[in-house]
Design goal:
Pseudouridine synthase; ten-stranded mixed β-sheet; two-stranded antiparallel ribbon; 12 strands
Length: 224
């Protein structure tokens, strides 16, 4: 990522807090601090010093990603992210047309066979809320709020409902080849506390094109 690209993706810079609209195809963090193939490295280069990722998005997931230049702020921000008042919103395009308008999934998530994740009885608690925003001929647009932060939570719970994400390779059989990445976007984050944070990331161009191809309207997604 070039410095110019990074500057154009800064959603908020306030004190030690930096919120970036993470592009798809780039991990939040790398294998090491010297790994250039991650967003954290670009942010560190810009800051000229250490920057910590408060949370991580899947490499293929776009949207709101929090960083801080002060190590002691990491625990406080992680606490705010896990608080009941936190609102973590996503947009996703999925296969099928759900028969429901809203659905809450609380099935636990864990290792299924030692190598892959999925819904499993003795997994960690997970809470995902789904809302249908639009239906196309064969696909749907969902607004999603997660109340926990398990790895691949949205992808796993969507597939568990029978509506895997468009572009899903791991939790759909056969893998979906309609889009080069999972159609998942971290659209908005609201944190309460001494200082309220409310930041949103615009829908990326590739998902706008995909929505058009799947005959899905994005007008109801604007407030999500």
């Amino acid at each position: 990522m070039t410095p110019r690209d990074l500057e154009s993706r800064i959603l908020l810079e306030a004190g030690t807090l930096l919120v970036i609209d993470k592009p798809p195809g780039l991990p939040s963090t790398g294998r090491s601090l010297d790994d250039e193939d991650c967003l954290q490295h670009a942010v560190i280069e810009r800051a000229g010093g250490m920057v910590w990722a408060v949370h991580q998005l899947d490499a293929d997931t776009s949207g709101v990603n929090l960083f801080t230049t002060e190590r002691r702020q990491v625990a406080a921000l992680k606490g705010a992210l896990s608080a009941p008042s936190a609102r973590k919103h996503y947009l996703a395009m999925v296969h099928g047309r759900p028969a429901w308008e809203t659905r809450t999934v609380t099935d636990p998530i864990g290792m299924v066979d030692g190598t892959s994740l999925g819904v499993i009885a003795n997994g960690r608690s997970a809470h995902t809320e789904f809302e249908v925003l639009d239906r196309g001929p064969e696909h749907s647009l969902l607004g999603i709020r997660i109340r926990t932060g398990r790895t691949h939570q949205v992808r796993i719970h969507a597939a568990h409902l029978g509506h895997p994400l468009v572009g899903e390779e791991w939790y759909r059989s056969p893998p979906c080849s309609l889009h080069p990445r999972q159609a998942l976007h971290a659209s908005r984050l609201i944190l309460e506390g001494q200082r309220r944070l409310d930041v949103a990331a615009p829908i990326p161009e590739d998902l706008e094109r995909l929505a058009s191809e799947l005959s899905l309207r994005l007008d109801r997604a604007a407030s999500r």
